[in-house]
């Protein structure tokens, strides 16, 4: 590789570094702003479980540093989530110069839609899924067993579910991208619908606690969002869709 080829490559690396630094800076600023409210954030996050616990039960901290580190971890995770639009914009600004005009018209709306869907998945998990899951789990405790959840374990549990439901709500984006890149067609996906429904329940089984309610609450949205992706793909330009 000669100097002429190295200069564009180095300039791309410099631009990538600058955009990564901007993203990290935004996350740090948001985290610093949220840090004074870290305990309030954790209380809000724990409400779905606290409402289901027996009156004599509470949440506990089994490690010495957990009362500080667990809310701090939640604050940092929240900062990353809130910074997602900025992070995606930095990604878009980095790759946009290398895209064709028709690609730019589709990629930016997909990035915007994927962000909205991810947050919708988190909201759905918190308000619709968590109350049912925790009601089931607390009532399933054997007689004589006091349900007293560790705050760190609870945070890890809900963050995994947030990620699972946020990722599941990206199904329409994945469906549109598969059709747009001509990896498949609407008709082909329609023929595979039974397998996709079964796959949705398998994913629900793997990503949620071992109860039918939470598995169904993840599998059904995946299926419905897949259907939404099929419907949205019909509005792709014929040139990309090639049905």
Task: Please explain how this structure is put together.
With 243 residues, the protein is an all-alpha fold. It has eleven helices and no strands. Helix 1 (3-34) crosses helix 3. The longest helix is centred in the middle third of the chain and has 39 residues, at 101-139. It is flat and about 65 Å long. The model is unreliable at 239-243 (pLDDT under 50). It is found in: Cell membrane; Membrane. It comes from Methylophaga marina. It holds the Pfam family TatC. Its main location: membrane. Belongs to the TatC family.
Keywords:
transport; disordered C terminus; 0% strand; 243 residues; TatC; transmembrane; mainly alpha; protein transport; cell membrane
Helix content: over 70%
Molecular shape = flat
Q: Largest beta sheet, briefly?
A: none
Q: Helix tally?
A: 11
Helix and strand content put the structural class at mainly alpha
Please provide the ordered H/E string of secondary-structure elements. HHHHHHHHHHH
Radius of gyration: 22 Å
Q: Which spans of ≥5 residues are poorly predicted at pLDDT below 50?
A: 239-243
Which strand-content bin applies to the residues? under 5%
Would you report the number of β strands? 0
Mean pLDDT: 83
Distance between the termini: 42 Å
Helix-strand blueprint:
Layout: H1 3-34, H2 38-50, H3 66-82, H4 84-95, H5 101-139, H6 151-168, H7 171-180, H8 186-191, H9 193-207, H10 212-233, H11 238-241
Helix pairs in contact: 1-3, 1-4, 2-3, 4-5, 5-6, 7-10, 9-10
Task: Write a brief structural summary.
The protein has helices at 3-34, 38-50, 66-82, 84-95, 101-139, 151-168, 171-180, 186-191, 193-207, 212-233, 238-241. With 243 residues, it is mostly helical.
């Amino acid at each position: 590789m000669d100097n002429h080829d190295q200069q564009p490559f180095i300039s791309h690396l410099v631009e990538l570094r600058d955009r990564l630094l901007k993203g990290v800076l935004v996350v740090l600023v948001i985290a610093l702003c949220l840090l004074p409210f870290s305990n309030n954030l954790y209380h809000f996050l724990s409400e779905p479980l606290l409402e289901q616990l027996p009156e004599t039960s509470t949440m506990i901290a089994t490690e010495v540093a957990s009362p500080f580190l667990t809310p701090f971890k939640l604050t940092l995770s929240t900062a990353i989530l809130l910074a997602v639009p900025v992070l995606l914009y930095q990604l878009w600004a980095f790759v946009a110069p290398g895209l064709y005009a028709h690609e730019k018209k589709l990629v930016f709306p997909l990035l915007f839609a994927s962000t909205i869907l991810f947050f919708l998945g988190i909201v759905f998990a918190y308000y619709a899924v968590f109350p049912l899951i925790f009601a089931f789990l607390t009532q399933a405790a054997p007689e004589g067993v006091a349900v007293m959840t560790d705050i760190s374990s609870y945070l890890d549990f809900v963050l995994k579910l947030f990620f699972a439901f946020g990722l599941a709500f990206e199904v329409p984006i994945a469906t549109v991208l598969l059709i747009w890149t001509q990896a498949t067609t609407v008709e082909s996906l329609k023929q595979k619908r039974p397998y996709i429904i079964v796959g949705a329940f398998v994913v629900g089984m793997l990503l949620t606690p071992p109860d039918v309610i939470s598995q169904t609450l993840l599998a059904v949205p995946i299926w419905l969002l897949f259907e939404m992706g099929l419907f949205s793909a019909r509005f792709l330009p014929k040139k990309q869709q090639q049905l």
